[in-house]
Write a structure and sequence with these properties.
single chain; 5 strands; globular
Length: 141
Amino acid sequence: MRILILNGPNLNMLGIREPEIYGHETYGDLCSMLQKEADSLGVSVEFFQSNHEGALVDAIQSAYGKMDGIIINPGAYTHTSVALLDAVKAVGIPTIEVHISDPDTREAFRKISYIRAACVKTVKGHGLPGYAEALRFLCGK
C-alpha cells in the first residue's frame, strides 16, 4: 500500500508558526513520526509540501494510478480551493483531510472546508498524531 501525505502552505513552518496552536514539533518531526508509523504498518509513504496551490494539484494528479490513499492538510487552501477539491474528485483516491488544530474553534472563515466534500474522513484537533490516525484509518487499522 502506498500513501501520499500532502501538506499545504506554511506547514513547512511547523515549530515556528504559532506554536501555541501548532506545537513545537517541526515538519521534519512530523515526517519522521509518520515514517515510523508507516514502517510499523508495512506501508510506503511519500511526503510533499508546497506553499503553491498548483503544485498541490499536480501532486494529487500525479498520484493517480500510483497511490492507494492520500492524507492532506491543505492549510489555508482548505477554505479557498475548489481546485484541490476537483483534483481529489478527479483521481478518485481515498483521501483524508487532516488539521492539526480544530478549525471549527477558530476564526469563522475556517469553518468552511471545500475539500471535505471529496474526503472519506476528516481528522481535526488531534495535533500531529492526527496524521497517524489518518494513516491507520487508510490501512484499516
